[in-house]
Amino acid sequence: MPYHKVYRTLLLWLAWASFAITVILGLYIETGVWEFVKYDSTKLTWVILSLFLFSTAISLWLTITLTHESVELLEVDYAARQQGLMGIITTPEHNAVRRFFNSLKAVVMVNGENNLEALLATELAFYQRVSHGLAVIGNLLIMLGLIGTVIGLSITLSGLSSSLDALGHDETLLLEGLRKAMSGMGTAFYATLLGAVFGGLLLRIFALITETGVEDIGDRIMKISLVYCAADCKRTEEKDVRILNGEIVALTENAKLMAEAFAESRAAMTAFHEEAKRLHEFNDVDGKGDDIAALREAIRMQKHYRALLRQEIKLVDQVNRAWWPPLLRVFMSKRKSKVPAPPAINHDTKEGP
Questions:
Q1: Considering 123, 173, 192, 257, which has the largest number of Cβ atoms within 10 A of its Cβ?
Q2: CA 338, CA 353: separation in Å to the nearest integer?
Q3: pLDDT confidence of 344, banded at 50, 70, 90?
Q4: 272 and 314, same structural domain?
Q5: Residues 178-234: tens digit of each pLDDT
Q6: Are residues 197 and 305 located together in one domain of the fold?
Q7: Beta-carbon neighbour count of residue 175 at 10 Å?
Q8: Mean pLDDT of all residues in 144-152
Q9: 3-state SS assignment for residue 40
Q10: How many domains does the chain have?
Q11: Are 82 and 169 within one domain?
C-alpha cells in the first residue's frame, strides 16, 4: 500500500490548517477584528474563539490517532496476506485495529456468526462520535454568531433610543448613545463573521477530514477481512468437527482428573480404615507385653506430671495476683518514716525498770 494513503488524513489536516492560518491572518490584517475582540463587552467573540481553538486541538489529536491506526493497519495487512487471520498478532489492544481482529479471532474460534459490519461499527464508534462532535461544535459556533447578531442589534437600538432622547439638549448623552450603537453594530458584525468563518468554514472541514479518515480505516479493515481472512471466517463442517473434537478432548481430560481424584480418595479411606483397625486391635490387647506396660506407665506419669504442673501454675498465679501486700508495705514504711520521735521516748521509758 502506498505510504501517501497511510498518511493521507494527516496531510489533508495539515494542508487545511495552513489555509486556516492564512484566513486568520487575513482577518487580523484586513478587518482589524482582533482589536474589537480585545474590547468586546459581551465576551461572545471570546467564547467563539475559545471553542474553535478547543475543537481544533481535539481534531489534531483525532488525526494523529487515526494516522497511528493506519500505520498499524499496514502491518496487519502484510500479516494477513502472508498467513491469514491467525497470523495477525493482536496481543497489544491499545488501538481499534488490533481489538477488531482480536474479537474476530474469538468469534472464529467458537465458530460463531460473523457480523463484520456490526463489529467494525462497534470498534470505530468512538472515533465516529468525536468527529460528529466536531461538526456539532461547528454548528454551535454558527448559532453563537447569530445570537451575537441579535445581541448587537439590541445594543444598537438601545443606543439609538438614548441618542434620540438626548438630541438637542444633552450632547454628552447623545455621544454616549452613539458610541453604544456603534459598539452594538460591531458586536453584530464581528460575532457573525467569526461564527461563520470558524464554525461554518474551518471547523466543518476539519470534521469532514477526520470523518473521512475514520471511513477510510473502516473500508481497509473490511477489505482485509473479506479478502485475506475469508477462509478463516468461513463456517464449514471441518471447523465444526474440529471444535467438537476439542470439546471431547477437554471432557476426557476432566473425566481423567475426576478418576484420579476418586482413586486418591479411595486410597485415603483405605489407609484410614487400616489405622482405625490397628488402633482397635491395640485397645483389645491385655496388659501383657513390655512395650504396652511401658506405654501405660508413661501415660500415667504424664498425667501425674500434668496435674503437678497445673497446681504449680495456680500457685504462681495466686502469688502474682497478690500485688497489694508489697504495695501496702511500701506505703506503711513511708508513713512510719514520717512519724516523730515520741514513740522512741516511750520505748526507753518502758525498758528502764
A1: 123
A2: 29
A3: very low
A4: no
A5: 777 777 787 788 888 888 989 988 999 999 999 999 999 999 999 888 888 877 776
A6: no
A7: 12
A8: 88
A9: coil
A10: 3
A11: yes
Q: Specify the residue for cell string 475426576.
A: 258
Same domain, 144 and 262: no
Q: What's the whole-number mean pLDDT along residues 38-59?
A: 87
CB 131 within 8 A of CB 62: yes
199: Cβ–Cβ under 8 A, 6 or more apart, which residues? 48, 52, 137, 138, 139, 140, 141, 142, 144, 145
> pLDDT tens digits, residue range 21-38?
998 888 777 777 777 777
What's the rounded Cα separation, in Å, for the pair 310 and 94? Answer: 70
Handedness of CA 113, 117, 118, 123 (dihedral sign): positive
Q: Are residues 135 and 261 in the same domain?
A: no
Read off φ and ψ for residue 231, nearest 5 degrees. Answer: -65, -35
Same domain (yes/no): 228, 254: no
Look up residue 162 and give its three cell numbers. Answer: 438614548
Q: Which residues contact 201 (CB under 8 A, 6 or more apart)?
A: 23
Q: What DSSP character marks residue 114?
A: -
Q: Of 67 and 163, which is predicted with more confidence?
A: 67
